[in-house]
Automatic annotation (TrEMBL):
GO molecular function, one term: transmembrane transporter activity
Pfam family, one: Na_sulph_symp
Protein name per UniProt: Citrate transporter-like domain-containing protein
Organism annotation: Rhizopus delemar
Membrane topology summary: Multi-pass membrane protein
Similarity annotation: Belongs to the SLC13A/DASS transporter (TC 2.A.47) family. DIT1 subfamily.
Record bears the keyword GTP-binding: no
Keyword match Transmembrane helix: yes
Length: 260
């Protein structure tokens, strides 16, 4: 559980501070027609929930199928069921029970749009990695660090964080670049323990920057509530916040643990 031991303090700081940061970033306290926007949002949400009424039979069916799929994904190492097969089983089950109809599936343009673009970006990322593009970029970053005499550890970690912009999948980014940056850190003499920790943590946290870094972000973005420019601006602020926390509080905590 070394990863948990190393992340518990910076993660707690982020969990406590992030709502305050987003409250300031999103200007939650601004007055809109004499009323607090936050109160309006809560009232609107409650009104919509009241309109929906109690949980219906179809909603319970959906919960059951989602829970079943989640269990099958978690136990994939035992059952050897492919993740895509599990998803198809879930869709077929919903169609068989009448929870949804094929028209619901075929007319959900946001979902198809996300599938088309996200799948395309993931395929491109995989092909670039197989073609040696990630290795080439890693070598160039290593040469730049040596040429400009930059501090190895923070330079590699920040570069790894920022390269998330090139991918529409965190998994694809990790597969393409994690080993490349670890090899570069080894050649440049970086602290292997701390670099591994930063790459592991930043591999997830870097998904905050864009509306296409993760599948969840893409789904949220397609609802149209947040424009792309605002998403990128907030993502940049969050990225700076994460980098600050992990390079200050995180480093101090890891020094106490004896990693440095």
């Amino acid at each position: 559980m070394t990863w948990l031991e190393g992340s518990v303090v910076p993660c707690m700081v982020c969990a406590i501070s992030l709502p305050l940061l987003l409250r300031w970033t999103l200007s939650v306290d601004k007055v809109d027609n004499g009323k607090r926007t936050g109160s309006n949002a809560v009232k609107h949400a409650q009104t919509e929930l009241d309109k929906m009424g109690p949980v219906s039979k179809k909603e319970w069916q959906l919960c059951l199928v989602l829970l079943s799929c989640l269990i099958m994904w978690i136990t994939a190492s035992v059952t050897h069921l492919d993740a895509t097969l599990v998803a198809l089983i879930g869709i077929v089950s919903l169609l068989y029970m009448g929870t949804i109809t094929w028209r619901d599936v075929s007319t959900n343009t946001n979902a198809w749009d996300t599938l088309f673009w996200l799948g395309g970006f993931i395929t491109i990322a995989q092909q670039l990695s197989e073609a040696g593009a990630s290795k080439f970029l890693g070598v160039q970053i290593s040469h730049a660090i040596k040429h400009f005499n930059l501090p190895v550890l923070p330079s590699l970690a920040i570069a790894y964080f920022l390269t998330t912009f090139l991918f529409s999948s965190l998994s694809a980014h990790i597969v393409a670049f994690a080993s490349t940056f670890l090899d570069a850190g080894h050649m440049l003499g970086a602290n292997s323990m701390v670099l591994t920790a930063l790459i592991a943590y930043f591999g997830v946290l870097a998904g905050c920057m864009t509306n296409f870094s993760t599948g969840m972000a893409a789904m949220y973005y397609t609802t149209g509530y947040v424009p792309r420019s605002k998403w990128f601006l907030i993502g940049l602020q969050m990225a700076m916040f994460y980098l600050f926390v992990y390079f200050t509080i995180g480093m101090s905590w890891w020094k106490l643990l004896g990693w440095l």
